[in-house]
Amino acid sequence: MDRGALPLAVALLLAGCSLSPTSLAETVHCDLQPVDPERGKVTYTTSQVSKGCVAQAPNAILEVHVLFLEFPRDMSQLELTLQASKQNGTQPREVLLVLSVNSNVFLQLQALGIPLHLAYNPNLVTFQEPPGVNTTELPSFPKTQILEWAAERGPIASAAELDNPQSILLRLGQAQGSLSFCMLEASQDMGRTLEWRPRTPALVRGCRLEGVAGHKEAHILRVLPGHSAGPRTVTVKVELSCASGDPDAVLILQGPPYVSWLIDANHNIQIWTTGEYSFKIFPEKNIRGFKLPDTPQGLLGEARMLNASVVASFVELPLASVVSLHAPSCGGRLQTSPAPIQTTPPKDTCSPELLMSLIQTKCANDAMTLVLKKELVAHLKCTIMGLTLWDPSCQAEDRGDQFVLHSAYSSCGMEVTANMISNEVVVNILSSSSPQRKKVHCLNMDSLSFQLGLYLSPHFLQASNTIEPGQQSFVQVRVSPSIPEFLLQLDSCHLDLGPEGGTMELIQGRAAKGNCVSLLSPSPEGNPRFSFLLHFYTVPIPKTGTLSCTIALRPKTGSQDQEVRRTVFTRLNVISPDLSGCTSKGLVLPAVLGITFGAFLIGALLTAALWYIYSHTRSPGKREPVVAVAAPASSESSSTNHSIGSTQSTPCSTSSMA
Questions:
Q1: Among 12, 495, 550, 592, which residue's Cβ finds the most Cβ atoms within 10 Å?
Q2: Least confident of 84-93, 149-158, 348-357, 469-478
Q3: If residue 298 lies in a helix (H) or strand (E), which one and from where to where?
């Protein structure tokens, strides 16, 4: 591809066109029609929302985000990822996410290491995996009241309305808005705070350019201006499937002046863009683009000028961060959708994977019960022909609004071990030629033992029932015997020191709470571990405390309903410094008081002695007025006396301990 002479030729051609009253772009004949989705597909990720706002709340203890999600279907799937910003090694602050949906949603939530509180409607939201976060039922309010309800709990950092999202990325601590109060406004750019991918692909149109021979095809992407005009880089991924060699094709990218392009293509392709562009393999090398028309007709004219005979794809998008173009063939062949063009969504088909994930398992009274709600089955457009356990004679009962499978641990082919009872549920659906199978488990809780231990060294050899302020403490939780099919996780922990010391939050939402708490690597057996440092700045110091942790056994298959939660605790004795005297580890309260008084006394005596010497060694004629200054020791004593018995705040203390 010889691009050296191309800009000169283009310049001459444009100059020639400008002399005529009617340009080539205005006379091009190309009737854009929707392209068969099998022949071309464009998806994108954007920060543009129909309504939204971003506000600053730098000093807020709780970071509040609100999402209003509209889905056209009765049952939709959504990937929601929360991403915390790491700044100077500080722990992320607590987050309240308010999730308002209009229909049933199957949610895949990822919020690892984030102390998250989730407010949602449990009748509409089903989790693919156990969320492992604190949850609150969201009242059935209109949008304005939901915003007021959220604002009562903390300043709202962001709020957005999204129409039929497939995935959402919410970045925490990124709010750069100039507003101090979040109020929904139309057509907003959420910046780095929120990016989302619509479920419906962009409309792809194509046409054949009249009067141009050959097989060169053009792919035209037009990015429309956004609400904000800051510098923006759009990543364009181009995947063309060609039978042999590189395609004879051109990629035309047109956008606002502040947009640059990062191109990731699997074939060599001619590039024609506005602004600047670079390639993924050489991202530092920016290439200056051209000034292109900002109308569809003008861009079609550019394609014809570059000798393209077919516009294989023409797409107009809102300002996006990532655009993916997939064309399964190349070579100048155009296949448009047959007329008439379908304007209604295609008929939904049953998703076997989603259907199997909605089967709930309950274990109680030496029996296993499986429940599948008919309402969810209807939303998925599934027709169930049969629902049994591994033993086909154990069939489900129709109990009005749900299908129920029930069996004792001693029948229906149950596999019983010392710690677990297993079986398999088999579902036959009309749209699938083979039955769907899913492993189900029940834990024998009588055979399991949960332990919480505090240790004084990171070797975790000998558990202790004492804790000493100022010394590092190490905690481990474990279950015995271990169960390979289940994962042991630590959801939350706190240290209750009674009315004298208050409560110290250690772990919240599977994340460390405060700078003096550190999550450690699990043991070789997978037992969760963490360490913390305890400080007291109040008198009197508590003598006892209770360490409590909420742990969860979650199946590695990700079935939310099969998780088991337990709260374990251990009572601790607090070694009070005023009872241990002065040791090699440090000075305690009586020693500090003695040293302070001694420093004051020595300072006073030295001051008096120096004054006596000074006043008796000068001649009377040279004496001058002297301004008295408070002795440093006296000032230090005053400061020390003021601090004793009052609350001191350090990175390792919490307000609840004051």
A1: 495
A2: 84-93
A3: helix 296-305
**Which of the two residues, 142 and 74, has the higher pLDDT score?**
142
Amino acid at 7: P
Inter-residue contact 496 to 546 (CB < 8 Å): yes
- Within 8 A by CB and 6+ apart from 213, the residues are 309
Spatial distance between the Cα atoms of 658 and 652, rounded to a whole number of angstroms? 12
pLDDT > 90 in the chain, percent: 29
Q: Which residue would you say has higher pLDDT here, 153 or 622?
A: 153
Query: Over the stretch 167-205, which tens digit does the pLDDT of each residue have?
Result: 999 998 866 656 678 889 998 999 889 999 999 889 999
Q: With contact defined as beta carbons under 8 Å apart, do 204 and 217 qualify?
A: no
- The answer to whether 534 touches 469, Cβ cutoff 8 Å, is yes
Q: Residue 313 belongs to what H/E stretch?
A: strand 310-317
**Amino acid, single-letter form, for residue 405:** L
Query: Which tokens is 529 given?
Result: 């571990």
Q: Which residue stretches of 445-529 are H helix?
A: 498-501
Arithmetic mean of pLDDT, 225-235? 84
Q: What is the pLDDT of residues 590-649, one digit of tens each?
A: 556 678 878 888 988 888 888 888 777 765 554 444 433 343 443 333 333 333 333 333
Is residue 211 within 8 Å of 70, Cβ to Cβ?
A: no
- Exposed/middle/buried for residue 87 (C-beta within 10 Å: 0-12, 13-18, 19+): exposed
Written in H, E and C, the secondary structure of 244-261 is: CCCCCEEEEEECCCCEEE
H/E element, 363? strand 360-364
Give the model's pLDDT for residue 335: 52
Q: Please, are residues 488 and 529 in contact by the beta-carbon 8 Å criterion?
A: no
Can you tell me the distance from the alpha carbon of 452 to that of 567, in angstroms, rounded to the nearest whole number? 10
State which H helix or E strand residue 205 sits in.
strand 205-208
Instruction: Locate 444 and state its tokens.
Output: 């024998």
Mean pLDDT for 222-234 is: 85
- Give the 3-state secondary structure percentages of the chain, helix then strand then coil, rounded to 5: 15, 40, 40
Distance CA 544, CA 148 (A): 42
The C-alpha R_g of the chain, in whole angstroms, comes to: 35
Bond into 283 cis (ω within 30) = no
Per-residue pLDDT at 92: 65
Average pLDDT estimate for 2-23: 36
Q: What is the pTM of this model?
A: 0.63
Can you give the pLDDT at residue 111? Answer: 85
More reliable by pLDDT, 317 or 87 = 317
Please, which contacts does 12-17 make with residues 24 or more away whose CB atoms are closer than 8 Å? Answer: 13/305
Q: Tokens 């024998």: give the residue.
A: 444
Residues near 157 by beta carbon (within 8 Å), at least 6 away in sequence = 54, 55, 56, 57, 60, 63, 64, 65, 175, 182, 193
Gap between the Cα atoms of 53 and 183, Å rounded: 6
φ/ψ of 26, rounded to 5, equals -80, -20
Q: Is 196 exposed, middle or buried, given 0-12, 13-18 or 19+ CB atoms closer than 10 A? A: buried
Q: How far apart are the C-alpha atoms of 322 and 197, rounded to whole Å?
A: 9
Q: Which helix (H) or strand (E) holds 355?
A: helix 352-357
- According to DSSP, the residues that pair with 277 across neighbouring strands are 261, 287
Strands 270-273 and 249-254: parallel
